[in-house]
């Protein structure tokens, strides 16, 4: 058969990327139609991590929902707890004491930091900088140990509850955190030298995966991918929750719109997180860490619908909660930033790129698959 | 107050809409389903660029599904919840993809979990569930425990 007789479709091959891939966090599968190395078409296949959490939340009471919600996003569990607690607080009119707001801020920033380290590992792994993974993991492990000190668990903490936090921070935590911050800054400095300023990293990321400001706004993109297009949108500034309104921090932005800009925004956010934790430790007021709430089995929550939002490590995380006057939540719908990033932006960005860029793009947009599947 | 101004603007423009200010940065508006497209286009022109989420709530007692369209503005920070009610027996809604492109995956998800049909959405293929033949599982009358008993053999 001569070359002319082969149709365009016959030159294409369908490749299955995933559901298991070392460069991607979580299980999902992409059917990529390629010609040679070039990607022509992308179809996302999800559901490998669908656990039906939103349905389960409707069958358990308000408080027993906490062990479910933290598992919605494996990489960044604390923000899901914060959303659920904020939703119940707004539905039931529960107040949070000031000390608890500061503790929550510290916990949420620790959550963002460890989530950013996982992003760093994915990004480094996709390009072969495996040393970064070890350096990052050592620091993340220290954060998880500090979580264990506060909450008694490393990954899923079930620590933020309606009306405050489960218990006050223990003695010795502040000192350990103050010792960790300079140590982590030193690691970040080393990572700057090896990865962010490395010519290989810049060549692989600069001008790659361009997501324009107009497209980002059109597709509902939030978080670092939006801030890398010059839009300084951050829920912590727009609608301050916890103690963010009392603390000074910057919202880093870039205007390059490419993978490199997104990476540099994430890099700058880690410095901001460390600064926020330092300030919160410094200014934390005395007082109770939890406002005693009535027996949760006898809660009488009026019929209402609320939307609450926080800035997670990936962007705007939201929760739409509906109560109907019974002892169970009527509907709890999570809005994960990964859904528009993964289902709308990724398939558009990948067209025209080559196969080795897939893992890189998934990391660059910081897509969390469990957060999409729920 | 900017929330109050938006509420008045919406009520002046849409005679059938009922709006109220829930709290700072939250405006809730209920309206008939035919007018939703015009409302969202109006809001988009006002700077509400971000479609944050589309939620569905099953009000089985009232025989209705409630669809809540969440849109927000980066300038004012206001988050608007536009609510429409549709018939539960014959749940059909016009797709909002023409107004907000990222409505596509949210409508696809609601189609799969609640069985709402979105006319104009080109891809409503199942996203999460594999070979699902039962009631859409997020409906209130779908009982997960009974389903597990029925489908999985415990012997």
Please outline the helices and strands:
The complex is a heterodimer of chains A (374) and B (155).
Chain A: H1 8-11, E1 13-17, E2 29-35, E3 38-45, H2 53-59, H3 66-69, H4 77-92, H5 98-126, H6 130-151, E4 160-161, E5 164-165, H7 173-196, H8 199-205, H9 213-218, H10 224-227, H11 235-238, H12 259-283, E6 304-311, E7 316-323, E8 329-335, H13 338-350, H14 357-364, H15 369-373
Antiparallel strand pairs in A: 1-2, 2-3, 4-5, 6-7, 7-8
Helix pairs in contact in A: 4-5, 5-6, 5-12, 5-14, 6-7, 7-12, 13-14
Chain B: H1 2-13, E1 18-23, E2 26-30, H2 36-45, E3 50-59, E4 64-72, E5 79-87, E6 92-94, H3 103-114, E7 117-119, H4 144-151
Parallel strand pairs in B: 2-5, 6-7
Antiparallel strand pairs in B: 1-2, 3-4, 4-5
CATH superfamily grouping of chain A: Cytochrome-c3 Hydrogenase, chain B
Structural class of chain B: alpha/beta
- What integer value in Å does the Rg of chain B equal? 18 Å
Helix content of chain B: 25-40%
Question: Biggest interface: chains and residue counts?
Answer: A-B, 35 and 33 residues
Q: Main β-sheet of chain A: number of strands, strand sense, barrel status?
A: 3 strands, antiparallel
Count of the domains of chain B: 1
- Quote the average pLDDT of chain B: 89
**CATH topology title of chain B:** Beta Polymerase, domain 2
Task: Write structural notes for this entry.
The complex is a heterodimer of chains A (374) and B (155). Helix content of chain A is 48%, strand content 13%. By secondary structure, chain A is of the alpha+beta class. Chain B has a single domain (2-151), classed as NADH:ubiquinone oxidoreductase Nqo5 subunit (Beta Polymerase, domain 2), CATH 3.30.460. Chain B contains 4 helices and 7 strands. In chain B, 27% of the residues lie in helices and 29% in strands. The radius of gyration of chain B is 18 Å and the shape is elongated.
């Amino acid at each position: 058969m001569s070359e002319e007789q082969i149709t365009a479709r016959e030159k294409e091959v369908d490749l299955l990327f995933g559901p298991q891939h070392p460069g991607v966090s979580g299980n999902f599968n992409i059917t990529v139609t390629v010609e040679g190395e070039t990607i022509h078409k992308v179809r996302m296949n999800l559901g490998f991590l669908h656990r039906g959490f939103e349905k389960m939340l409707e069958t358990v009471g308000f408080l027993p929902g906490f062990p479910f919600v933290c598992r919605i996003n494996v990489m960044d569990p604390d923000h899901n707890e914060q959303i659920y607690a904020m939703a119940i607080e707004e539905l039931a009119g529960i107040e949070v004491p000031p000390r608890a707001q500061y503790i929550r801020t510290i916990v949420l920033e620790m959550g963002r930091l460890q989530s950013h380290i996982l992003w760093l590992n994915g990004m480094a792994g996709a390009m072969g900088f495996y040393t970064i993974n070890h350096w990052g993991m050592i620091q993340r492990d220290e954060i998880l140990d500090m979580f264990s000190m506060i909450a008694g668990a490393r990954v899923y903490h079930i620590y933020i509850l309606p009306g405050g936090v489960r218990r006050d921070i223990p003695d010795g935590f502040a000192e350990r955190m103050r010792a960790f911050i300079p140590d982590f800054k030193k690691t970040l400095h080393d990572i700057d030298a090896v990865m962010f300023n490395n010519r290989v990293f810049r060549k692989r990321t600069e001008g790659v995966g361009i997501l324009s400001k107009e497209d980002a706004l059109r597709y509902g993109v939030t978080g670092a991918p939006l801030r890398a297009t010059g839009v300084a949108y951050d829920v912590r500034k727009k609608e301050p929750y916890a103690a963010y309104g009392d603390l000074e921090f910057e919202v880093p932005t870039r205007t390059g719109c490419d993978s490199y800009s997104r990476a540099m925004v994430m890099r700058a956010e880690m410095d901001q997180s460390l600064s926020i934790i330092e300030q919160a430790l410094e200014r934390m007021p005395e007082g109770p860490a939890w406002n005693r709430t009535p027996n949760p089995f006898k809660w009488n929550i009026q019929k209402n619908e609320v939307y609450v939002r926080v800035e997670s490590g990936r962007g705007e995380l939201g929760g739409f909660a509906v109560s109907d006057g019974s002892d169970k939540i009527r509907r709890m719908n999570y809005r994960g930033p990964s859904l528009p990033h993964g289902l709308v932006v990724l398939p558009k960005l990948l067209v025209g790129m080559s196969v080795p860029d897939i893992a890189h793009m998934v990391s660059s947009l910081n897509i969390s698959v469990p957060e999409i599947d729920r | 107050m900017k929330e109050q101004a938006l509420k008045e603007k919406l009520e002046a423009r849409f005679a059938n809409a009922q709006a109220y200010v829930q709290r700072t940065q939250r405006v809730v508006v209920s309206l008939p389903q035919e007018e939703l497209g015009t409302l969202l286009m109006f809001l988009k022109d006002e700077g509400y660029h971000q479609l944050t989420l589309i939620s569905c709530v099953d009000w089985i007692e009232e025989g209705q599904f409630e669809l809540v369209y969440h849109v927000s503005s980066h300038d004012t920070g206001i988050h608007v919840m536009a609510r429409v009610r549709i018939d539960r027996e014959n749940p059909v809604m016009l797709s909002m993809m023409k107004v907000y492109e990222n409505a596509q995956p949210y409508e696809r998800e609601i189609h799969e979990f609640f069985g709402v049909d979105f006319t104009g959405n080109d891809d409503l293929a199942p996203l999460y569930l594999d070979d699902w033949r039962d009631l859409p599982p997020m409906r209130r009358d779908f009982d997960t425990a009974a389903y597990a008993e029925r489908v999985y053999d415990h012997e």
